[in-house]
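Re: Re: token formats

Sure, here are both.
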Amino acid sequence: MNCSFCKSKSYIVLPYLKKGFCKRHFEKLMHKRFKKNIKNLKMLKKGDKISYKISKKPEDIFLKIMLEGMPYKKSNKGKKVISEFLDILSEKFIKEIFSGKWPKFKVNEKTLYPLFNFPYSEIEAYLKMKKIDFSGDFKTNELLLKVMKNRPGAMFSLSKWWYDKDN
């Protein structure tokens, strides 16, 4: 499949969008989605102080890259920006439902989840594309893999509903 925008060879195909992306357009998509999460969900304002974990884990590296150049100040006392991504949040949701609890996505003005709609596979593909070393690997739950295969985009709907419900 070719890139849906420039017709060059696709670097990645996203089944839920039914589109292929070259490296340039995939990078644009990732940055645009991140900025849209921050803006539309009113997570941060210009000049806000934020804190986030720095490690060699892919999601932490990705979060740091996405925040670079944005008008926020890193501080230990700022709003806590959590690097949990779509797969982790969906697994938590499913585990709580199966244990008989109503899932709670603890979002407030001091704890933010800007990667809530980023699948691990896309975070990993982005870092590999940029040739950035990272350690660790995430294994997606078998049930979620089946859902993603049979219903591309279902996890996005779930995360959006879950995020909107608690805000």
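Second one below.
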Amino acid sequence: MVSPLDAKLGRDLWRMKGQALAIAVVVGLGVLMLVMMDGLVNSLTETRDAYYARYRLAQVFAPLKRAPDRVLDDLRAIPGVAAVEGRVTGGALIDLPGLAVPARAEAISLPPMGRRGSMPCISRAAACSTRPGPTKSCCSTASRKPTGSSPATGSRRP
């Protein structure tokens, strides 16, 4: 035997079956999105970890302004730190032929010669359809200055 309240509930649900179906669809889609986003986050995390391990990238990058070299020794002393490397970086805007607006560039210092590897090639400049030449117009720290590069090596001239 069905109680009167259960019968009323059944009648009310039958009258608003469209709304009940819409609510069920919204809840189902919400659960679907939650499962999908969890899988996406896990996949991206695993991909990032594999990429960092394959190319031996740092797990932590810590940009500092005007830090003395002795900070590197303090960082090397932290347990679990495999390698510490200090670099000098700076941003610039470079006028390139064919571009309406200046290109944004970031200059990163190279490790001292003798440690590991050799000087990088200039294939990146070739990929951007530019070559080392006498001068390029460059703007860094709010003033526009012409800078030069040696045609043979790509190294900066004073």
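The chain is about 40% helix and 15% strand. The CA atoms of residues 33 and 39 lie 10 Å apart.
- S.
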